[in-house]
Amino acid sequence: MASNNNSSDRQRIAQQRLSRIAAHLHKHEDGNSGIIAKECKIDATGSPEENKGTVPRKRQEIMKWNGWGYSDSKFLFNKKGQAEFTGKRYRLSGMTLPRLQDWFENTFGASVKHKSPATPVLNASVVPPPRLNEAFVENLKATGIPFSNEAEDRVFRAHGHCLHEIFALREGKKFERVPDMVVWPNCHKDVVKIVELACKHNVCLIPYGGGTSVTSALECPPEETRCIVSLDTSQMNRILWLDENNLVAHVEAGIIGQDLERLLNESGYCSGHEPDSMEFSSLGGWVATRASGMKKNVYGNIEDLVIHIKAVTPRGVIEKSCQGPRTSTGPDIHHFILGSEGTLGVVTEVTMKIRPIPEYQKYGSVVFPNFEAGVACLREVAKQRCAPASIRLMDNKQFHFGHALKPQVSSIFTHFVEGLKKFYITKLKGFDPHQLVVATLLFEGDRERVLQHEKQVYDIAATFGGLAAGEDNGQRGYILTFVIAYLRDLGMDYCVVAESFETSVPWDRVLDLCQNVKERIIRECKERGVQFQPLTSCRVTQTYDSGACIYFYFAFNYRGLADPVHTYEQVEHAAREEILANGGSLSHHHGVGKLRKEWMKDSISNVGVGMLKSVKEYVDPENIFGNRNLL
Amino acid sequence: MSTVCASCLNILVFVTLQQRDPMLKRDGFEDILEERRNSSDLKYALRCYAPVLYKGVTPCKANMLKNIVLQSDQLRYVINQVSQESGEAPDIIQEEASVILEEMAHRLQISTVRFFAFALSKAFKTLFQHVCVNEEGIQRLQQAIQEHPVVLLPSHRSYMDFLLMSYILYTYDLALPVIAAGMDFMGMKFVGEMLRMSGAFFIRRSFGGDKLYWAVFSEYVKTMLRNGFAPIEFFLEGTRSRTCKSLTPKLGLLNIVIEPFFKGEVFDVNLVPISISYERILEESLYARELLGVPKPKESTSGLLKARRILSEDYGSIHVYFGQPVSVRSLAQGKVNRSTYNLFPRHIPRKPMEETQSFVNDTAYRIVRLQEDNMVLKPWVLMASLLLQNLEGMELSVLTEQTVWLRGLALSYAAFLDWPDHAPTAKVVSSSLALHRGLACVSGGRVSLVVGEPLGPVTPEEALFNRAVSVLSCASYRNQVLHVFLRPAMLAVAMHTAASSKKNEVYNCFSFLWDMFSNDFILCPGDTVQDFEEACYLLVKTGAVQMPQQDIVMTDIGQPTLSFFNGLLEPFLQGYQMLLPTLRSEHSVLCVFTGNLRCYEVLSSDMQKNALAALLRMDAVRKVKV
């Protein structure tokens, strides 16, 4: 029967798809031990079923309390002075990276001898005691919704992944304010109850999704005197139903990216939304911060993907009455919620577009003689609207960074081939190794179309002096973005602080912005007494019709500085001012949080701020959602 | 005025004085002619020349540069616009643009530079005793050139200026600048082309409404700046100052070179003020005649050849001071919001916003003041100031005595005085008189101005003319020291004219003078209060004035200083006074002639022009078409 064939085909494709995702996220594993395949249960009633998400309530059981990601995965320099990546989860896991130490020491003037280790365990004495609202607690108990006021749980939800937050955790600094308790609603109805109780007892709620914020959005306002409750959505992680006719899925907003993708894959679908944080960030978080995924060229950004949003606010539940693909019913109320950063309510359920898993996926890369040529090529690709699922242009520094992550070469033959490639590019083609840049590509679709598409892009690249440089180089670029946060922890073990930030800018200003921001950073570091040359690197990470998204890495060796975090913050502040002066936006996808609030007025005008304020005023007059982000 | 806390201002003024005028930190000089006198000029002209460029860019061939300009979005936009407005095909307009560019562009050639290096070495050694350069300034410049696009902004007193600049940069192995020159040079056969090949590019003196010309011109300059192919050099004053007084700056080119910073096309632009001080200016007597209405000789090659006779004279020394590079980025910090440029495509020409305009204007004035600050003054400058207050002549001993006194005053006001070390004053005075024997002479122990005596019978008009020439020539030396004394001198005049010694009233008079003279002198817009405070501070510091409570009064020992200052500005006051009534009659010359006025300087076309502009600005007169 056709339908049977269909479903078995789908099964097969799903399997392929899974291994592909695993390829750029995780280690190849035939046994598939870490990932449990699960049939999607289409359940229109949305009744709770047993939880099979990756994230447990006690996050600290599998994740670091003072760094990025899984506890079992980290970079370290072993006794032989070689870098290795521990654990079994990723492609790089268990491998030694012979080039990393040299790169690290040369780039930062750092030394593996100068360690700056983190406090190993959380000292309960640095955590302020919870200020509980007894009446609220009593009422909450009656609902049966699980909660906790243990120090570890509260501290875990007191921060995102800004440099200053992680640095403080590592130093074991005393916390000024952390949530007083954590609640784990299991479904939309639970959230409704919690919000009602919070309103009734005047308790401050801070929604918590994946905890990957880099805008100080999760920081508790120190001036908040009410009981602060962290509303952890991680247990709301089911796909409630899947509609193959309309290609949409209705999903609980607490689901994290990898679970969403895994569950959809099992049915032969994908969302295609793959932000670099997708291992940990949640659907609700994406909506609340206007997230962007690496493959937005095919699937769109989060605002293009959502069809319907259900959110609980102090005024009640907000949602639309239909799932029409587009409406003309006044300003789109979704856009009050998209980017609201937890100031208006909690997103509980989202209906989003899904796509069949693409038949074929292929990485690629192109080497350009310099950054200017690369940008010109990306601009042309955008002009012809033929961008592959992902196209990124890494500058020279990032190219070398990527190379530092090459694992030990196993055979003489690969070694030889590598050498030959290098010879070809630098000697025969005359590319300056200190100038050349690489564009990484990811194509998706049916095989024939992908190959055709690939040719089109490589042809354009050739007109800008680009040379195809293989799948491996392309894939390595994407690995870098997934392990970069782990690498930051390694840096912090050796007196190097690092952060990334982003912007979006019209095409004609891309080059100038990149150059000026880098120069500003270098100059500010010098003026503020940073003794070592900072690393400033950028990539054009998304392309649009009229502009691009630029992603910066910035790191420096802080030895000799009294207050490295303060210095870092001053430099980042200056860098943001430079971005704004050069025509860049305040943020492309990280959001505003509390880190960039000061620029909101200039960014959206006084009237704009007034509009947002009046919405907040109506929806949440008592400031129950009191994280004070955005405004 | 009264709303501002006076003591705060005093501190502020003090601080800015220290910043602007770090007298103690001025660099020393090296004579670059010394080596030329001791080694082969030919070898020097042929030596290896390999300057470092901005961020190590490779030098750009003149042709490549033209192509970049012609193909730029900026120019293409204007070409299309002009084509639509005029109905001509874009190709034709494009061709026009190409012709304009051809006429404008420099064609820097190292061989020509070497020729100049050789020829100028010979000429300089004959004309000048020393050509002194502050080498620390050169080092700062070298650093700046590598880091940011650099704009060289020399003062402009002589045709020599830009040849001299290139000569010095060549000597120190620095990147040769491209120089904005007036089109009049191009009229000089052969020489014009030589200048072009040594880095000059030519712009028309006026091209008011010509969009295409402006677009080609500004894009040409910006392209060189953005890419850092070479430092850009131009004269903020726009033309040679015939009076040796700094001219109020022209903003066109400065606007062009600053804009790339505002648009984020470059990280920063460094402006380098350069002060070129001549002990004697080659054009000395020409200028005086020009100011009196004898037309400027047209630049021509034959004229230049005739000017050879100047080779037989001694023109003393030249001092070239390369000032601290000024970062436009730092200057603009907090004054211009660059993000206002975000909402308009960068390649579409647009009138600068008000905020930007006033910033550029302000910057221009500050740079000219920096030029003034580092002008090297010779003893003769002080002597000329004294002689002009005593046109009937002075006893040599009195002149010597007063020169010493004035030297002390000038030094305490941070003048950059080049007074010979260890030489007795009498010697200094006599050697100054010797160098300037064409202007002043000693007879019977009295020093007086030399008045040219033409052969044959002299009409009274001719006599007056000759007298005026000698006064104006002498004034061009006095003018060099004006920037040192200007503010205290205006205060002295204000004290003299104010109805009472109340600070407020004195300030009102000061402010009126400040406003009136702002075409004649370099007074930064909006700085009235600060200048007033600076003047008070200086006069109090030298003991000429006391400020008990809300009064400003002269001290017992203040008389000589204040009366010197009054005398210093008198020609200007009289000139302006004269001009009002004479606007109606056409006989200003007659007034002087008939002895109504002792002030010859009112005959200077420069003063007439400035006074008229001031009166227009202050609504005292208005233009009527007849």
From TrEMBL, chain A:
This is Alkylglycerone-phosphate synthase. It catalyses: hexadecan-1-ol + 1-hexadecanoylglycerone 3-phosphate = 1-O-hexadecylglycerone 3-phosphate + hexadecanoate + H(+); 1-hexadecanoylglycerone 3-phosphate + a long-chain fatty acid = a 1-acylglycerone 3-phosphate + hexadecanoate; a long chain fatty alcohol + a 1-acylglycerone 3-phosphate = a 1-O-alkylglycerone 3-phosphate + a long-chain fatty acid + H(+). FAD binds at residues 207-213, 289-292, 341-347. It comes from Oncorhynchus mykiss (Rainbow trout). Signal peptide: none annotated. Belongs to the FAD-binding oxidoreductase/transferase type 4 family. Homodimer. One of its GO terms (cellular component) is peroxisomal membrane. The active site is at Y551 (proton donor/acceptor). Substrate binds at R488. Pfam families: FAD-oxidase_C (PF02913), FAD_binding_4 (PF01565). The record marks R392 as: Important for enzyme activity. Residues 175-357 form the FAD-binding PCMH-type domain. The keyword Lipid metabolism applies. Its main location: membrane.
Automatic annotation (TrEMBL), chain B:
It is found in: Membrane. This is Glyceronephosphate O-acyltransferase. Residues 1-18 form the signal peptide. Pfam families: Acyltransferase, GPAT_C. InterPro entries: GPAT/DHAPAT, GPAT/DHAPAT_C, GPAT/DHAPAT_LPLAT, Plipid/glycerol_acylTrfase. It comes from Oncorhynchus mykiss. The lineage of its organism: Eukaryota, Metazoa, Chordata, Craniata, Vertebrata. SMART domains: PlsC. Pathway: Phospholipid metabolism. Transmembrane segments: none annotated. The keyword Nucleotide-binding does not apply. One of its GO terms (cellular component) is peroxisomal membrane. Belongs to the GPAT/DAPAT family. Keywords: Acyltransferase, Membrane, Signal, Transferase. PANTHER family: DIHYDROXYACETONE PHOSPHATE ACYLTRANSFERASE, GLYCEROL-3-PHOSPHATE ACYLTRANSFERASE. GO terms for molecular function: glycerol-3-phosphate O-acyltransferase activity; glycerone-phosphate O-acyltransferase activity. GO terms for biological process: ether lipid biosynthetic process; fatty acid metabolic process; phospholipid biosynthetic process; triglyceride biosynthetic process.
